[in-house]
Amino acid sequence: MVYGACMALVLLVEDDPAVQTAMTAALRGADHVVQPVGTALLALQAVTDDAVDLVVLDLGLPDLDGFEVLRMLRAVSQVPVIIATARSDDPTIVRLLDAGADDYITKPFSSGVLIARVNAVLRRVGDAARAEDGPITICELVVDKARHEVTLGGSAVELPRREFDLLAYLAERCGTVVPKSELAREVWHQPNMNLDPTIDVHLSWLRRKLGETAANPRYLHTVRGVGIKMVDPCANSSLV
Ligand code: CA
Predict the structure, then answer these.
(1) Do 114 and 23 share a structural domain?
(2) Are strands 136-138 and 141-144 parallel, antiparallel or unpaired?
């Protein structure tokens, strides 16, 4: 499956066709790539084969008990798992979390709650990955914070410190819109100043070095009135 580095691949394990369709639509509407499956065996196969970022697992599947699926998933993968369950009694929840679930949602739930839980778990995983400080690869762009190096298509891109910090901050949050006020606070460390013009100038320098313009962006997209979003130009948008 081809999908962008900025997008999360969510494996949705749900055997009820109507529920599966509704959940898939909700998650796709929230910019996630969704692979829906209806059985435990297909789920285990998908986790082994694909770069799944998160699993939403229905506890009541036709072929295997949900606890058994969770146990088997945990034997092969550390992928975050959110359990969707109609059973919300304390012993069940405790057993689920003990068995390696990262979170749970109680059926019936709204698409808003589903998306919020999925995003919250992905954010936690993202924070943990950022703490490791490994190089970030987005299409042809590689940002290595530890070495303070940027390459584009294998060629080094020389960036002054502020432009590097700006690019790294956006790359770490690839796929999400970052407000300029947040950039002023976190990259410039000036929370109380309106730095919008300064940020725009740095963005235009950065864009020139990445071979793009505001009118024809590849990586750095301005979302008018909201902020800046790093996008994976290699992403297959037809799958979104
Ligand atoms: Ca079910």
Answers:
(1) yes
(2) antiparallel
Distance 66 CA to ligand 1 centre (A): 9
Domain co-membership, 143 together with 203? yes
Same-domain pairing of 52 and 87: yes
The CATH number of whichever domain residue 201 belongs to comes to 1.10.10.10
Q: Say if residues 159 and 209 touch (Cβ distance below 8 Å).
A: yes
What residues sit around ligand 1, an ion, with C-beta below 5 angstroms? 15, 58, 60
CA 158 remoteness from chain centre: 28
> Which pLDDT value is given to residue 236?
59
Interior angle at CA 161, CA 159 and CA 167, nearest 5: 65
Query: How far is ligand 1, taken at its centre, from the CA of residue 106, in Å?
Result: 13
CA distance linking residue 209 with residue 175, whole number of Å: 21
Which DSSP helix (H) or strand (E) runs through 205? helix 196-209
What distance in angstroms lies between residue 70's CA and the mean position of ligand 1's atoms?
14
Q: Do 28 and 138 have their domain in common?
A: no
The reported pLDDT for the residue numbered 177 is 87
- At residue 225, the pLDDT reads 86
Task: Indicate whether 147 and 43 sit together in one domain.
Answer: no
Please give the average pLDDT of every successive group of 10 residues along the chain, which has 240 residues. 69 96 94 93 90 93 93 93 93 93 94 93 81 85 93 96 96 89 94 92 96 94 91 67
- Choosing from 108, 129, 150, the residue where a domain stops is 129
Domain count of the chain? 2
Together in a domain, 123 and 197:
no
* pLDDT attached to residue 165: 96
Type of residue numbered 64: L
